[in-house]
Design goal:
This protein has 4 helices and 11 strands. By secondary structure, the chain is α/β, with parallel strands linked by helices. It folds into 2 domains: 2-145, Rossmann fold (3-Layer(aba) Sandwich), CATH 3.40.50.720; 150-218, no CATH class. The strands form 4 sheets. A 5-stranded parallel beta sheet has the order 3-2-1-4-5, with helices on both faces. A two-stranded antiparallel sheet has the order 6-9.
Length: 228
């Protein structure tokens, strides 16, 4: 497994870096090289994460199974990482903080379901904003993936062009009743066995144009909710 740590030489992350190397993983450390740490077995990439062009040059086409950012603190930094690492890693891990959980707490036991709310510390509010941005990115990617056509045992040439408009709820899930739009499916010399289009949208009919004529076909395998 190929792992990239952004940072990786701090008080906490150094110990984790050593453990990763000891476990036989291929570890890359991307940082400015200002902190010395005995991390033999890791590979060093010199760049300032605040300089995207410098980072892209240091990565030089590398891809990773996991990217872990130990030093992201604001939503802007998450936005930067989404641009830098989308399509370059299988998983992105953001290091948050226990201080994001509800203050004052409604219960003495804090769990993953405890609300994220801390009006007393900017650091915590920024970490919460980071988590919310990543969750939104996850849902956006899931939405795009689910709206894309998928087929099983398809032979021939086909394409789908569509546009949708609608409203989003506060959690960034789409309000299905507000969705509207249309699309055109073009099929030529095709043999199709099984098709799933616009999955997760409530069942309804949609007009497709086949060889210059319009016919109506229902959505297949539709469920009423979107659940990255």
């Amino acid at each position: 497994m190929k792992v990239l740590f952004i940072g990786g030489t701090g008080t906490i992350s150094t110990a984790v870096s050593r453990q990763v190397v000891e476990n036989g993983l291929e570890l890359y450390l991307l940082n400015r090289g200002l902190q010395e740490a005995d991390l033999s077995g890791s590979k060093s990439l010199r760049a300032d994460i605040r300089n995207p062009e410098e980072v892209r040059a240091a990565l030089d086409g590398l891809t990773f199974d996991v990217v872990v950012n130990w030093i992201a603190f604001t939503e802007d930094e998450i936005e930067r990482d989404l641009a830098l690492f989308s399509g370059r890693t299988g998983q992105y891990i953001f290091i948050s903080s226990a201080s994001v959980y509800q203050k004052p707490p409604s219960h003495y036991v804090i769990t993953e379901s405890t609300p994220l709310y801390n009006p007393y510390w900017d650091y915590s509010r920024n970490k919460i904003a980071c988590e919310e941005r990543l969750n939104r990115a996850y849902r956006e990617v899931k939405l795009i993936r689910d709206l894309a056509p998928s087929t099983a045992n398809v032979y021939g040439k086909f394409s789908v062009t569509y546009k949708l408009k609608g409203e989003f709820a506060k959690d960034m899930s789409p309000k299905l009743e507000t969705l509207n739009g249309g699309g055109i499916m073009r099929i030529a010399e095709a043999k199709i066995n099984g098709m799933k289009l616009f999955e997760e949208i409530a069942p309804r009919s949609v007009a497709f144009r086949f060889a210059g004529t319009e016919e109506k076909h229902p959505f297949f395998h539709c469920t009423p909710r979107l659940s990255f």
